[in-house]
Known about the structure:
single chain; alpha/beta; Rossmann fold; 3 domains; 17 helices
Amino acid sequence: MKRIPLYEYDRRNREKIVEAVEAENGLMLSAFRFGEQNGRIQLPSGTKYMYIDVSSLFSNEDRVASLLPYLERIIAFVQNIDRCEAYVILERQYMASAKGMLYFALGDVYSLEEKLGLEGCQAKNIADLTEKEFDDLCSTVRSRLFGNPEFKEKLFEELRRFRVFSAMGNQRIFSAFLYGTSGIGKTETARLIHRCLSPSEQLIKLNFGNYSSVNSLGSLIGSPRGYVGSSKGELSEKLLNSRGTVILIDEFEKASKPIHNFFLQLLEDGWFTDSLGRDYDLNKYVIIFTSNLTEDRLESELAPEFKSRLNLISHFEPLSNQEKEAYVRFKAREILSGVPEDKRASITPEIINGIVDIDVTGVEDLRKINAELMNRISSSLYPIFYSDEE
């Protein structure tokens, strides 16, 4: 059987995909409808493309094997149709299962969003950005991440270095370890980079606060089927459900020794295999580890061989009062920009001054400042939004 390409898509983009297919005189057909018509499809006049979605056949893992002959019929139909161009498409979350089941028939895997030119749905990686896109990313991080200016410039320098070595095939993953007290911008660094690269994708985030047991590696990459407490693995599943290329790992210091060893190997190889034998290539990914460790504990908590594989280790300093006040003004403007047009005239300078006049002295955690800011905004805007009309 000749191998065919497979086009994966994010189900959150389905409405946009349907619109794009219809705009190019295409037809989307579910596997169920294909079966109803027994492969004898009546194409509307002028149809140029046909997309057969086989996602429903993979929704129940226990039934996939029994549906293999049905899948083979669809593949044979796509290979032999000459009335139009035909493609097999699949929700991204089922891709690993499809690869395992149809290894003999599938060729390369492509993004359906990219094929249809849905620019807002495409995910990017740090290595393949144009220089202008990379400069824009740096500008965004520089302007939206408050405090720690030396860290930001060092980050950009190390990212540039990574882009060079990635282009030469000498480095697969960029990794950074950020440590310091809670709520001063460590996780925000990962979120900002992610938003610049893949705004329509979910950030791949793991918290290792509950990964301290000796069996925690199974929670990360799954355990074999049939074992008591078997699972698919949190990292494995999140990689399957997001095309984002940034991974955020909070509280890394709390992870068990097997978890540390796993990442030691991952940073070396750039890929891993989960408990079900599925390979995950993390080439051109950014992995950001965060920790609340103090500087004096860093040496004892992190193994030298792990630190040697990191591209950047940086201590985050608490923000100055001036930086926190600038953050309050920035955050207030960002939130208030969402006020409906017909309400904006009611938000006077006095109201805005009352919102941003927060005493930030002695408050290090930006989350606490955010909470106070949200309280003031809601109290100030509620009468404007919900006042009784005459």
